[in-house]
């Protein structure tokens, strides 16, 4: 019978993460301080341990994975690569479809790949507590799990709309010992200011980041952990693409196109960056980041310096942004509601080295249901964006007769997202295209630097 799962042994877990900076044609734009001048790495010491800071600014191609981190990775890694035979048959496509499935992790998504690493480095630095934000809850639950593995306290500021829509994500975090608060909250000065202006604020990732950064900066025993966007986070996620390359080779295949959903960029960078190394060396392939039309950071945003949070506590990063005061609609793909994007992903897109596409919400759920009925796995709403574009690529092959090989990252399962599926089946979900006028208005309030 044809192979469905392509598996690796635990001994084949990568020993190093891949740093895409080594193969980028131009060096990354530096983070800036409020005065518009590049900040020294040491300026990040108030919220990050030194090992993380060094990874953030590193240009080395390979960064060793500590054995203590690999030991915990063994709970679920290597994750399986699937050949989607049944989906191919349902679509009637000549294309070959492969997907890397990250929903086998304890938290059900790709997020523990960096959560475990960040918890390890903070533990080594003598830190006792971690503060963070979360949108849909995948990141918060991942850091709660990682904190439990290393004996760290974890406090999570969860975007209020997700806090209310996804109660079982909260329960998951609390099971692993984390404190969880709806953001904006009354626990921080940032939260209190936002609530004073809008007591019914649904929250945003930018707001939650402000609260978590404020807490970390104000306590010596506490550091901040981020689930996406920054260089070190995408570095840790490259274990996904590195495993996928080994598995594709084992299957005797190589992708023509690599696809992943993109909110802050860790999921896309995780699977795509190791393949970018081949693209940089001259191999022909496409790398496609998929975002929602309701939060079209890459496809409608501006490439400029902006704050990573709403209040303006973080350094300025050069990235595609919808404006740090962007207020996203309450769509269920909560992990894709961030106003900005990874500076590395943004720079590669700006330089024409990767692609980006925005897709509407209803089409993503339609694709997710079609995938689940063929393959049996229920995808997270965020992952449905990648499923949508993978199906569209396969259907284009059906029309043209091309026999392309498609690889996408199924970044998490949807077991905690059934309320969203319920709304889809009952016809309560609707498409929303973020208006150009709203983007233009936000652009007026970008910091005047860079």
Summarize the structure.
40% of the residues lie in helices and 16% in strands. It has helices spanning 50-57, 67-73, 85-91, 112-124, 138-150, 160-165, 167-175, 189-197, 205-217, 231-237, 239-250, 266-280, 297-300, 343-350, 361-375, 381-400, 418-425, 436-443; strands at residues 5-6, 16-18, 62-64, 81-83, 96-101, 129-134, 153-159, 179-183, 222-224, 257-261, 286-292, 302-307, 316-321, 355-359, 405-410. It holds the Pfam family PALP.
Description of the structure:
- This protein is an alpha/beta fold and 450 residues long.
- The protein has two domains: 5-10 and 67-108 and 237-443, Rossmann fold (3-Layer(aba) Sandwich); 14-58 and 111-231, Rossmann fold, CATH 3.40.50.1100.
- Helices cover 40% and strands 16% of the residues.
- It contains 18 helices and 15 strands.
- The chain has helices at 50-57, 67-73, 85-91, 112-124, 138-150, 160-165, 167-175, 189-197, 205-217, 231-237, 239-250, 266-280, 297-300, 343-350, 361-375, 381-400, 418-425, 436-443, and strands at 5-6, 16-18, 62-64, 81-83, 96-101, 129-134, 153-159, 179-183, 222-224, 257-261, 286-292, 302-307, 316-321, 355-359, 405-410.
- The strands form four sheets. Strands 1-4-5-15-10-11-14 form a seven-stranded mixed β-sheet, with helices on both faces.
- Helix 4 runs parallel beside helix 5.
- The longest helix has 20 residues, at 381-400.
- The protein starts with a strand and ends in a 7-residue tail after the last helix.
- The model has no long low-confidence stretch (mean pLDDT 94).
- Residues 75-412 form the Tryptophan synthase beta chain-like PALP domain.
- This is Tryptophan synthase beta chain.
- It comes from Candidatus Muproteobacteria bacterium RBG_16_65_34.
């Amino acid at each position: 019978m044809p192979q469905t799962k392509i598996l690796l042994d635990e001994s084949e877990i990568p020993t190093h993460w891949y740093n895409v900076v080594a193969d980028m044609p131009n060096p990354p734009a530096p983070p800036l301080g409020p005065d518009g001048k590049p900040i020294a790495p040491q300026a990040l010491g108030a919220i990050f341990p030194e090992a993380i800071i060094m990874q953030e600014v590193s240009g080395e191609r390979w960064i060793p994975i500590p054995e203590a981190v690999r030991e915990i990775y063994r709970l679920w890694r290597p994750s399986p690569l699937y050949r989607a035979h049944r989906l191919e048959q349902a679509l009637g496509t000549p294309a070959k479809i492969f997907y890397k499935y990250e929903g086998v992790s304890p938290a059900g998504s790709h997020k523990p790949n960096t959560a475990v690493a960040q918890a390890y480095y903070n533990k080594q630095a003598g830190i006792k507590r971690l503060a963070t934000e979360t949108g849909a809850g995948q990141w918060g639950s991942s850091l709660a799990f990682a904190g439990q593995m290393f004996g760290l306290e974890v406090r999570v500021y969860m975007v209020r709309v997700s806090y209310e829509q996804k109660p079982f994500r909260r329960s998951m975090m609390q099971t692993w010992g984390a404190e969880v608060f709806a953001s904006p909250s009354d626990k921080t000065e940032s939260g209190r200011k936002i609530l004073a202006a809008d007591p019914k604020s649904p929250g945003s990732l930018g707001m939650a980041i402000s609260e978590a950064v404020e807490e970390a900066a104000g306590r010596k025993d506490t550091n901040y952990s981020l689930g996406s966007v920054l260089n070190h986070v995408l570095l840790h996620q490259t274990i996904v693409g590195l495993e996928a390359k080994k598995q594709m080779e084992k299957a005797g295949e190589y992708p023509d196109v690599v696809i992943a959903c993109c909110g802050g960029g860790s999921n896309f960078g995780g699977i795509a960056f190791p393949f970018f190394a081949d693209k940089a060396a001259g191999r022909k392939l496409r790398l496609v980041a998929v975002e929602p039309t309701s939060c079209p950071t890459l496809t409608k945003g501006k490439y400029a310096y902006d704050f990573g949070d709403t209040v303006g506590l973080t350094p300025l990063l050069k990235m595609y942004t919808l404006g740090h005061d962007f207020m996203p609609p309450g769509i269920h793909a909560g992990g894709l509601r961030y106003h900005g994007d990874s500076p590395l992903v943004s720079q590669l897109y700006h330089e024409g080295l990767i692609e980006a596409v925005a897709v509407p919400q209803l089409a993503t759920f339609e694709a997710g249901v079609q995938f689940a009925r063929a393959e049996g796995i229920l995808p997270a709403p965020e992952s449905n964006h990648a499923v949508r574009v993978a199906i569209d690529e396969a259907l284009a092959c059906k029309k043209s007769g091309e026999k392309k090989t498609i690889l996408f990252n199924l970044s998490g399962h949807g077991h905690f997202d059934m309320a969203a599926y319920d709304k889809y089946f009952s016809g309560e979900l609707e498409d929303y295209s973020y208006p150009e006028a709203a983007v233009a208005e936000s652009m007026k309030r970008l910091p005047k630097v860079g």
